[in-house]
Amino acid sequence: MPATASGGRSLVDAVVFTPADWGRGFTARYPAESTPGTWAVLDGDCRWQRERLPAGVLAGLSRYSVRRDAGGAGSVTVTAVATVHASVTSADGQLVTTLEEVLRCPEQRPRDGELITGLTSTGTPFGAREQNYADDSVLEVGLYVERGGAAQPYRWMLARLGTVVVAASVTGSKNHPQAELDQLGGNALARMLERVRQRLEAK
Q: How far is CA 82 from CA 106, 167, 169, in A?
């Protein structure tokens, strides 16, 4: 596992999905990716903010993409994230915090004019409920509302492999079946985990 900030930055840059990785029709949102040296933190008002990486976190990167479908089918908005920690304890703490934050903030505001509501979460460690792809995982489920519009299904998926945490969020309009959105997010998470494994095996 990466032991330095530079090694962590190299890994997250290679692992985190770009718009092209998500598939045909996806383009970058604005901003296209997070500010270097920061990660997302849920503040006391249940709003997501970017803050400097704390001690114990070597690197973090988020990339934001969207697919605007033709014919009024709506859009699919996605986020891909990777975080490299200095220890397994720190990485595990990120997943624990994610579970606790849903209890504290079942409604969250990722950006101005955006609301995630009705959040619930489930943690599944390796070996439980046929989870055999990561050391630990968390799934958040809720509804996403943008500027007072119609509620859309929302999924936030995290998985830890050693000291690396990868995550993917998927939001889509009602014209996109939930199974389609789940498959999109699940495939992204699996492929980012595989990229982590390949880079570690190449060392």
A: 23, 6, 12
State the residue for tokens 């460690």. 125
Two structure tokens written together for 199: 């880079």
Residues across the chain: 203
Tell me whether residue 166 is exposed, middle or buried, using C-beta atoms within 10 angstroms of its C-beta: 0 to 12, 13 to 18, 19 or more.
Answer: buried
- CB 14, CB 192: distance < 8 Å: no
Residue 149 is given by DSSP the state -
Burial of 189 (C-beta count, 10 Å sphere; 0-12/13-18/19+): buried
Q: Report pTM.
A: 0.93
Measured N-to-C along each axis, helices 178-202 and 5-15 cross at an angle, to the nearest 10 degrees, of 140
Q: What is the mean pLDDT of the chain?
A: 93
Beta strands in the chain (DSSP E): 27-33, 38-42, 48-52, 57-68, 75-85, 114-123, 136-146, 152-161, 164-172
- Determine the Cα–Cα distance for residues 187 and 171; give it in Å rounded to an integer: 15
Give me the pLDDT at residue 73, please.
61
Neighbouring residues of 198: CB distance < 8 A, sequence distance ≥ 6: none
| 3-class SS of residue 200 | helix
